[in-house]
Amino acid sequence: MDNPELSFNPILLLVAITLTVMSSYTALDLFSLIKSSDRNKRFLFLGGTFSLGIGIWVMNFFGMLAVNLNSSASYQIPITIFSIILGISFTAMAFYTLSGKTVRKSNLFTGSFFMMLAVLAVHMLGMFSMKLNFFYDPVILIIALGMVFASFYFCFWMLFFSKSFTQGNHGWIKPLSALVVTAAIVEGHFLLSRASSIYNRNGTVEQSDIPESLISYIIVFVSVLILAGLIGSSALISKRLAVTDTNLKDITDALNASAIVAITDPKGNITYVNEKFIEISKYSEAELLGENHSILNSGLHSKEFFKEMWRTIGSGQVWKGEIRNRTKDGSIYWVHTTIVPFLNSKGRPYQYVSIRSDITQRKKAEASLKETLKEVSDINFALDQSSIVAFTDEKGIIKSVNEKFCEISKYSREELIGRDHSLLNSGLHSKEFFKNLWKTIGSGQVWKGEIRNRAKDGSFYWVDTTIVPFLNENGKPYQYLAIRNDITEKKKSEEMLHRQDKLAAVGQLAAGVAHEIRNPLTSMKGYAEFLQMDELDPQRQEFLEIILDEIDRVNNIVEEFMVLAKPKAVELEEKNIIPIVQNVVSMLKFEARKRNVKLEFDADEDIVQIECDENRLKQVFLNFIKNGIEAMPDGGDLRVTTEIQDENVLISIKDTGVGIPPDTLKKIGEPFYTTKKNGNGLGLMVSFKIIESHNGKVYIESEQNKGTTFKILLPAKIA
Asked: pTM, whole model, 2 decimals?
């Protein structure tokens, strides 16, 4: 086996290296476009892999030609073409692993491995295409492949993985990477050639020189291919730059038309302003350039505000906020500001771009709205403190109530919301009353009036009510605001004044005629009793009895007149109210039985001490119970109960009689007003006056055809 002698051609080797550098740069240029392009990705990928695959083959082919064999070898064209295809294929696989959005170290390893295989495959097939027998020294082969792998790994790490190189605009990255790739291919060729031992088959070499003209043609062809790749990638980059410039111009024009733009140097000195900046600040461009933004300082913001802003943009972060500025003529304007720092290769800002939008009108609107909301809030607060407020929907369902509503109604907010105002209906007002109310507010008009409501505990309260309808665009109410004021005490005062006026009239009448009536009544009674003693005729006896009864009735009326004219001073003593009520009930049981009325008494406690005038209270209980019995002409049930409520005793006298109409209920207790044929209307009035003298209250609840309840509330001494 004879080793052929080698000779060296430096010009051809230099051409090979130059062409490899050009193909590597073209390939890396095309691959870098893939990452930032949305279109032509397949074309760019094929062009890049073809370019680098050709570059590997060129270095191997011309490298072997540069180291000429004394006995020129012949090339097998099919194997040569296959070596080119295999080199391109391995290159494609290498870059396919690196084309994902995220590149990991495993991708770098795989890509470097495929590129190492590309160099090895092209070298081996190149030897086969020359019909040479060869073998590799294992140690040198491993070293050679390791160095090729490491070179490609470093290049790919620098291009696709390292943040310090991939981030930022580094124009030297691609040329350096192209040199590193070329170095890997060149060292791969030479080291693999060094690791191989070449010998001729049977010690002979076939004489077949390759003409120098063919070599020249091949060089020219390959150069044209590589230059075409360079021109194509340059054209793509130029096209993209043109599109980018157009887009940038459009964006700049749009920004200048809509925003206030300024550029400053790292110290904050203004280097550029657009027309909108000049227009809003009322300074000329010459007055602004070279100045800093303190020329616009309105004095509103603190030093700490600007320190924090500079701390943010100085660290390379974007700052956003609202700033109040002052124009040249002293007027104030507000801008929403975004300050973007532009960073150099060291990560430090070399200029700042401020993009502002005028928000003066919005800030004025906000201030006006804030002032309006404060006024509304103050009105609401005043309203909540002084009035009972409720909102309802168009159907009258309560949506919201204030604290005063809950306080006076004794219902919680949860119990009220979702219900309508019938929950508070006291039964005093007629259906016609509420129909008129709804007719008024349903037509969009404000309704005003006085309503008596019933609280949760059954007590009554009066409210002066104003209901305001809120109308939608069709002029129909979509909700109602009811504003009420508690007039319970006012109504009581009016009622008391009304009664006092009548009492005064009654008192004057009583004072004028009571004594004059009593004197003849005494004489009439005496003579009637005298005549009765000697009268034996039964019919005349009956007539005299009627006369005496009528005299007693007139005398009782006169007595009541006297009570009104000259009320006796109340002498209160501590008594147990239970036996007093029980005594009156016992007295009237016989009369109740005669009228087919079932009279019952029920007490929660056996002893309830109160300060009272026993005889006067008995007069009240007799009056109320007798009224209850008389209200049931066809019989029924009359129930008298006592129970403790807080620090009071409640005596209830409930019948199942005909009830009292609402209009009549209003007049109960007025002098000379009565529903009885033989009544005078003074009994209830005197009873109410007695209860008032005991610091008590009387409530009347009645429903027609269901009965009436008289409730007497008296202060009690609870142990």
From this structure: 0.38
